[in-house]
Description:
There is one protein chain. The protein has a single domain, classed as Porin (Beta Barrel). By secondary structure, the chain is mostly beta strands. The protein is elongated, with a radius of gyration of 18 Å. Helix content is 10%, strand content 64%. Strand 3 and strand 4 form a beta hairpin. An 8-stranded antiparallel barrel has the order 1-2-3-4-5-8-9-10. The protein has 2 helices and 10 strands; from the N terminus they run H-E-H-E-E-E-E-E-E-E-E-E.
Amino acid sequence: MKKISFILFSVFLILFFNSIVPAQSIKVGVGGGLTSVQGPDSYTNDISQNGFGFSSEYNFGAIAKIDIPLIPFTPRGIFLYHNLSSNDDITEFSQSISSLGLGLQYSFVPIPAGFDPYLFLDLTFNNFGDLTETINGNETKIGGGFSRFGLQLGIGTEVTIVPFINLDVFAGYGWFNLTGKEDGEDTVTAFTLDLFIIFNFI
């Protein structure tokens, strides 16, 4: 069921962008950065304190935007893959989160200026992978995968390097499981800092 939901959300994202073809420019980029898990305590506490010990890990992904001249709102879609892991002397925990977002960014400078600071808000579909524990090389699944809807908001800026290539730097705060939580399920949150290379297609 979670795979079907993820596929349907992906199709919706593609159809959304296809519905606004008259836009002047499409931007596509790839990149990555840092994911810093902020909560809950069960995720961030050290392994010695009965937590999973997740802290800061790398992420990578892709982004697409529809650039509409002279309009400060830019539709965007983003995919980020977060690979969380921790270990002490004998124990290791790991879990992945695949996040697919659809949202808008608001530009403060809606005209070409060499840089483009913006705020963004994304609605996200997040697929949590299996939570595994490895002790002395023996891996055990201690939590099954599941999917939840969430939210991410933040700030960023695009900087023009050459006419068709930009650098996109943004920081966001995300809630990965705002809806659909089961009883006793705590909200998973994280701060992300990313750098993407953006290619502009006219």
